[in-house]
Amino acid sequence: MSSITQPIGGHEHAHDDHAHHPTGIMRWVTTTNHKDIGTLYLWFSFTMFIVGGCMAFVIRAELFEPGLQIVTPEFFNEMTTLHGLIMIFGALMPGAVGFANWMIPMQIGAPDMAFARMNNWSFWLLPPAALMLLISLFVPGGAAGGGWTLYPPLTIEQGMGMDLTIFAIHIMGASSIMGSINIITTILNLRAPGMTLMKMPLFCWTWLITAYLLIAVMPVLAGAVTMLLTDRHFGTSFFNAAGGGDPILFQHVFWFFGHPEVYIIILPAFGIISEIIPTFSRKPLFGYASMVYAVAAIAILSFMVWAHHMFTTGLPTAGILFYMYATMLIAVPTGVKVFNWLATMWKGSISLEAPMMFALGFLFLFVIGGFTGLVLGIVPLDVALHDTYYVVAHFHYVMVAGTLFAFFGGVYYWLPKWTGHMYDESLAKWHFWLSFILFNVTFFPMHFLGLAGMPRRVPDYPQQFADWNMVSSIGAFGFGLSQLVFLYAVIKCIRGGKPAPAKPWDGATSLEWTLPSPAPYHSFETPPVVR
Amino acid sequence: MSVDQPSPRPGSGSTPATADHRLPGNRRLFMKLAVVAVAMFGFGYAMVPFYNAICRATGLRDIDRPDRIVNTQVDATRSVRIEFDTNLRNMPWKFRALQESTDVHPGAVTQVLFEVVNESDHAVTGQAIPSYGPQFAGQYFHKLDCFCFKRQTLAPGETRKMPVVFVVDPKLPQQVSTITLSYTFFEVEGNGNG
Question: In chain B, is it the N or the C terminus that has fewer CB atoms within a 10 Å radius of its CB?
Fold first, then answer.
């Protein structure tokens, strides 16, 4: 993409700066403004990140030493389950939707999202759902403890905490589907004149495809948990072996949702990284079209690989081979993306502000997570490593160092646009280095633990795993606490700081940088013309 | 791409760019996407019969059909011990094998007997599910007839002797000298109990 030759000021929007909206709490409850809703999503996401992080604290505290010290095994299982559900459905997915709400209308020159009121509703469904998950900790029988994957028969037999979990998933799924319909309609119908699809910033492209994935698979998850619910209470036998059902069937339905879900979580992160790296390399993104096609290829392939989560369930050999090779195939479009990012940086004038640091951290650690994913995709190795800490290490490299680092980078990248102030660069650097080092202290040892055979979701372990578990726990405490630096840096930036110009990054090219900072409450009411 | 000073939207034919849900284009797209979402909810349920059909076609869940035996040759040079194990899951029955174990030559057709007693005062329907130890021996254990092929309904107080006719495949790996055949009866609720 070429650069914007004639940046425009915000004078035509000056009269909008005094936005007409209720003040106080009602502003946030009744808002239909995409920027307000984006802010709500991002704060909700961060709150859930802290809540899920506290659960990780409990898990790592119990695993600090062998033996049972702090919590009961049942409570430990509830913690691992809720940690997974809250981080995925409460922190990562709403975080991505928050970025979409803030940035997509500004990047395509639209005044707002297509369905502004539904946008409000999609957000306000989330807090009750999160509350139901947390309340389930206090009901008789406790929260769901069968793992975030909710496999029967355990989840058919648990108490009412499981029902609350099922309803929470229903509500969050409805929210995701509405949000996705909104995003697709916005991108397809509300682009400014001249903003053809192949001129869109890559963040919009990744979200367009992610939204299609969400619409395709969230209803399947809703169906799967509805079947669990009717098996539990209404006498059906989808998964109940005693009534002629099959628990393995649940795994098929769940992972038909679950594998595309993995890409739902990582694709928006790819989009953010594809914005940051060209900006701070001061070069256009290398291979823009191939990036778009790679995302589409990843999305299509993601529907054909779900059974690689089930290599140990006794699939026929032909099936196992198919899923193994299809899984390997995903490395091709993913490799295209990684090499394109590298080629974008090649001979670029790179500067290392915090967003770029997080993007580089993402690149380095995501590739490690991708490679361990390839290792797990190889059947004979997977049979040995299935449900060990190697898997835990793998998906935390992809989700924490992948998606979360991209989100951190995105926050620092767009904070000047959101708040009108520059963030504190040295605080952000501290945040990056603490996160980067402590993340590796936490999760790298899990590779060793997994290779040595330590199973996941177990509160106790034999002596030989003690040392690395202690290292991992210390890293986890440090990683969690260093996120307070992030919170402080963001609050400090909202409160004040060096005023940000309309385009604080000289290499940035997309439309949002033509607006003043902070972005006016209503932007692009008159669409810009993109040539 | 380059951006001009924003100008009013050029006339007709361009992409609509206002956030108005009443725009017919937006509403049409909303309806299409909503239909996709509803259809995918149905697809989740459609996976159930599809899964069962796949399992049938590939023979993955043939626990309720007799195995086909071709050209069995009795291998009298070795014998394999078959041990029997019986379990009930929350059922008012008694269930036992009439022999603890038996020694068979691979390839030889053998019949064993099991006995169930309904100790309750009402009719109960059960379904037995077999499993094998070691697990992979299951594929070498061919059942020609088994009470586990169909549901068993027992009247109050009824005692029933039930046969299992089987052949151990001569291709059973040499190192396997003992196979444990374990049955668990599950109650089939809501079907055939009245």
Answer: C
What is the spatial distance between Cα B119 and Cα B88, in angstroms, rounded to a whole number? 13
B89: nearest Cα among A157, A316, A97, A341: A157
Instruction: Tell me the chain A residues in contact with residue B29 when contact means C-beta distances shorter than 8 Å.
Output: 181, 184-185, 188-189
Range of the domain at A501: 38-514
User: Catalytic annotation on A163?
Assistant: no
Instruction: Indicate if B153 and B82 belong to the same structural domain.
Output: yes
**Best of B40, B51, B52, B90 to mutate (most A CBs within 10 Å, chain A):** B40
Residue burial B47-80, b: 16+ Cβ < 10 Å; e: rest = bbeebeeeeeeeebeeeeeeeeeeeeeebeeeeb
C-alpha dihedral (A433, A438, A439, A442), degrees to nearest 10: 170
The residue of chain A nearest to residue B50, with distances taken between CA atoms, is A249
Give the whole-angstrom CA distance, residue A46 versus residue A54.
12
Same domain, B146 and B162: yes
B188 contacts A252? CB cut-off 8 A: no
B186 touches chain A (CB under 8 A): yes
Residue type, A145: G
**Chain A, chain B: beta-carbon pairs less than 8 Å apart:** 166
Within-domain flag for B17: no
A18 is a catalytic site residue: no
Residues B44 and B106 in one domain: no
Q: How high is the ipTM of this complex?
A: 0.88
Minimal CA–CA distance to A5: which of B102, B103, B4, B55? B4
Tell me which residue of A78, A413, A160 sits closest to A274, measured CA to CA: A413
User: Within this chain, do residues B42 and B81 fall inside the same structural domain, yes or no?
Assistant: no
> Cβ–Cβ of A241/B16 closer than 8 Å?
no
Instruction: Give how far A466 is from chain B: nearest CA, Å.
Output: 33
In a shared domain, residues B77 and B105: yes
> Per the structure, how many domains does chain A have?
1
The answer to whether residue A148 is catalytic is: yes
Question: How far apart, in whole angstroms, are the C-alpha atoms of residue A309 and residue A386?
Answer: 9
Task: For residue B105, give the CATH number of its domain.
Answer: 2.60.370.10
pLDDT by residue for chain A (531 residues), tens digit each? 433 434 444 444 444 445 677 888 888 999 999 999 999 999 999 999 999 999 999 999 999 999 999 999 999 999 999 999 999 999 999 999 999 999 999 999 999 999 999 999 999 999 999 999 999 999 998 999 999 999 998 898 888 999 999 999 999 999 999 999 999 999 999 999 999 999 999 999 999 999 999 999 999 999 999 999 999 999 888 998 777 788 999 999 999 999 999 999 999 999 999 999 999 999 999 999 999 999 999 999 999 999 999 999 888 888 999 999 999 999 999 999 999 999 999 999 999 999 999 999 999 999 999 999 999 999 999 999 999 999 999 999 999 999 999 999 999 999 999 999 999 999 999 999 999 999 999 999 999 999 999 999 999 999 999 999 999 999 999 999 999 999 999 999 999 889 999 999 999 999 999 999 999 999 998 889 887
| Phi–psi pair at A114, nearest 5 degrees | -65, -45
Q: DSSP assignment, residue A458?
A: -
A202-233 helix and A160-189 helix, angle to the nearest 10 degrees:
150
Domain count along chain B: 2
Per the structure, the complete domain to which residue B163 belongs is given by: 65-187
Does residue A18 form part of some domain? no
Respond yes or no: is residue A457 known to be catalytic.
no
Does A346 qualify as catalytic in the annotation? Answer: no
Nearest to A205 by CA among A337, A350, A368, A358: A337
Domain assignment present for residue B3? The answer is: no
Are both B113 and B86 inside the same structural domain?
A: yes
Q: Specify if B7 maps to a domain.
A: no
Instruction: Supply the CATH number for residue A149's domain.
Output: 1.20.210.10
Q: Which residues pair with A386 in a beta bridge?
A: none
Annotated catalytic residue: which of A34, A60, A259, A447?
A259
